[in-house]
């Protein structure tokens, strides 16, 4: 009799409808996001975020910190974008402020106040054209090489969007290829100071690397020019490029020398 009671009890529990909260499998649907209590939606979302956020640790040092905690930096796990071979990760900064005064240096209690996020890109497969067709939606499996990227170590770059990322990196490769040939089809203006400026400018173009791109942004073209202007910063090579492109053809390149100055952050 006791075994029969246990069996019936288990059967009843199995047949009882399971609530949406109990069915939490680490995912969330649009229906659940609108029907579940706000606290549960928040919990699930934050739980998922915790699985993709990776702390960007502060560089190791033997000197103990002296100031209160002001921010923590994280990266999201790299993913493949809608552009095949283009990977993306989000740099997330959580800002903190002291919970009370007076301050107690690095022992000061703080609380999270705001969040900043910015997308950074890196190619697993470098573009061979200025435009790449998007992946079909819904997106399938990501390129596994994207998951191998370590944003804390590997060079990433920022761009307005995925299309600018493709075009900007392709332009760097195309400028380098034409420069190496010795007869570029575009007009070149070099803004390098000091002796042998033009030679150093040409040498810099010959040594351009697509993987060294730091920033791709839009710029203003001259009034008498048509097309679009992309400004490409390359911190490692200390070069900036203003590139005028019209109908997929490079019309003009203005190359400048970049001088970077860095200050050690107070800790």
Describe the structure.
With 267 residues, the chain is of the alpha+beta class. It folds into three domains: 20-47, no CATH class; 56-147, no CATH class; 162-257, no CATH class. Helix content is 26%, strand content 27%. It has six helices and ten strands. The protein has helices at 2-15, 30-35, 38-52, 144-147, 162-181, 197-206; strands spanning 53-55, 71-76, 79-80, 86-98, 110-123, 187-191, 215-218, 228-234, 239-246, 249-257. The strands form two sheets. Strands 1, 2, 3, 4 and 5 form a five-stranded antiparallel beta sheet that branches. A hairpin with a 4-residue loop joins strand 8 (228-234) and strand 9 (239-246). The protein is globular and about 65 Å long.
Summary, kept brief:
By secondary structure, this protein is of the alpha+beta class. The chain is 26% helix and 27% strand. It folds into three domains: 20-47, no CATH class; 56-147, no CATH class; 162-257, no CATH class.
SSE-based structural type: alpha+beta
Largest sheet: 5 strands, antiparallel
> What does the radius of gyration come to?
26 Å
Give unreliable regions as ranges: 1-18
Give the % helix.
Answer: 25-40%
Number of helices: 6
Topology order in helix (H) and strand (E) letters: HHHEEEEEHHEHEEEE
* Gross morphology: globular
Q: What is the average of the pLDDT values? A: 88
Q: How many angstroms separate the termini?
A: 71 Å
Count of folded domains: 3
Strand content: 25-35%
The strand count comes to: 10
């Amino acid at each position: 009799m006791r075994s029969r009671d246990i069996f019936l009890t288990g059967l009843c529990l199995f047949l009882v409808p399971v609530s949406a909260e109990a069915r939490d499998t680490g995912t969330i649907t649009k229906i659940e996001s609108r029907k579940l209590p706000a606290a549960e939606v928040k919990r699930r979302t934050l739980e998922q975020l915790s699985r993709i956020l990776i702390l960007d640790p502060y560089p190791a040092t033997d000197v103990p910190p002296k100031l209160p905690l002001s921010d923590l930096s994280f990266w999201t796990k790299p993913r493949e974008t809608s552009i095949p071979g283009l990977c993306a990760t989000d740099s997330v900064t959580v800002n903190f402020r002291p919970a009370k005064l007076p301050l107690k240096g690095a022992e000061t209690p703080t609380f999270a106040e705001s969040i900043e996020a910015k997308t950074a890109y890196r190619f697993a497969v470098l573009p061979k054209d200025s435009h790449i067709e998007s992946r079909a939606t819904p997106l399938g499996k990501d390129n596994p090489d994207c998951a191998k990227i370590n944003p804390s170590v590997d060079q990433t770059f920022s761009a307005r969007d995925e299309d600018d990322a493709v075009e900007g990196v392709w332009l760097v490769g195309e400028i380098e290829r034409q420069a190496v040939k010795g007869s570029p089809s575009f007009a070149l203006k070099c803004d390098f100071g000091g002796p042998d400026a033009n030679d150093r400018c040409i040498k810099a173009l010959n040594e351009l690397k697509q993987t060294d791109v730091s920033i791709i942004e839009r710029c203003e073209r001259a009034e008498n020019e048509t097309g679009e202007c992309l400004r490409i910063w390359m911190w490692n090579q200390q070069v900036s490029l203003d590139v005028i492109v019209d109908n997929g053809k490079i019309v003009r390149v203005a190359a400048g020398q970049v001088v970077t100055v860095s200050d050690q952050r107070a800790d």
